[in-house]
Amino acid sequence: MGESEPMIQSLLLGASAAAIPAPCDVTLTNANVWTGAAYEQRTITIQNGKFTNTLPLANAVDASRLYLTPPFADAHNH
Predict the structure, then answer these.
(1) Stretch 34-60: mean pLDDT, rounded?
(2) How, if at all, do strands 50-52 and 39-47 pair?
(3) Which residues pair with 45 in a beta bridge?
(4) Looking at the predicted structure, is the pLDDT value of residue 41 above 80?
(5) Phi, psi of 62, rounded to the nearest 5 degrees
């Protein structure tokens, strides 16, 4: 498993990287996904710590009230 995968999981699931002992297989249904131009509701499946194009899993989470975005870097400083 790559070093960035636990961080991706922690961002998606709102937990610290230390709280996730192993990759979890989950489907986020109706997540508000930032596409670069707007938010679109999509279903996202994560298997073995990676985004996949598989059918939704039995372990599904309703993410309709959550927003999935790429990490943003703030280059602002004083």
Answers:
(1) 83
(2) antiparallel
(3) 27, 52
(4) yes
(5) -75, 110
Contact between 14 and 8 under an 8 Å Cβ cutoff? The reply is no
Residue recorded with tokens 């280059």: 75
How does DSSP classify residue 9? H
Q: Give the gyration radius of the chain's Cα atoms.
A: 13
Are 46 and 61 in contact by the 8 Å Cβ rule? The answer is: no
6: left (phi over 0), alpha (psi -120 to 50) or beta: alpha
Q: In this structure, what are the phi and psi dihedrals at residue 13, rounded to the nearest 5 degrees?
A: -100, 0
Structure tokens at 12: 């998606």
Residue 51 is predicted with a pLDDT of 82
